TrEMBL record:
Region (Disordered): 85-136
Start-end of Basic and acidic residues biased regions: 93-136
Protein name, as recorded: Uncharacterized protein
């Protein structure tokens, strides 16, 4: 059996060595949202994790003056414009993708119809050739 350093004791003084153990930190238990919804209230996790960074309200303890307010509103307007532009771009890209898929489907359908017609004609000819080649 291995001898661990934290369970040795001094034979001379019959005193236990002081045991120093590090505090164990466990990762929080992660429960999926779907499972949480199915759990009864008593079993749902209620301990909200502490925030590492303070939120906006905790950070902003000073009242902004007129100039700062103006700058903040201008920045917010710029961000709003950018997000709107991104949204429009996303919508346009989705429409283009949809149109391309429709076009591809139409082309595939036309190709399939032509292929079907070609195969039909081929087998019709094969049937005629087989009939004419057959000895009676």
């Amino acid at each position: 059996m291995p001898v661990l350093s934290d369970n040795l004791f001094s034979h001379r003084f019959f005193l236990c060595q002081p045991v120093e153990r590090s505090v164990r930190r466990f990762n929080p238990l992660r429960i999926p949202k779907s499972l949480q919804a199915a759990l009864p209230y008593k079993s749902k996790p209620k301990d909200a994790a502490k925030r590492k960074n303070p939120g906006l309200l905790e950070k902003r303890a000073v009242v902004m003056d007129a100039k700062e307010r103006k700058i903040a509103s201008l920045l917010q307007a710029v961000r709003t414009l950018r997000s709107e532009k991104v949204k429009k771009r996303k919508v346009k890209k989705a429409e283009q993708r949809e149109a391309a898929l429709k076009k591809k489907a139409r082309a595939e359908e036309a190709r399939g119809a032509k292929e079907k017609e070609r195969r039909k004609e081929y087998f019709r000819k094969e049937g005629r050739n087989a009939k004419s080649d057959k000895p009676v």
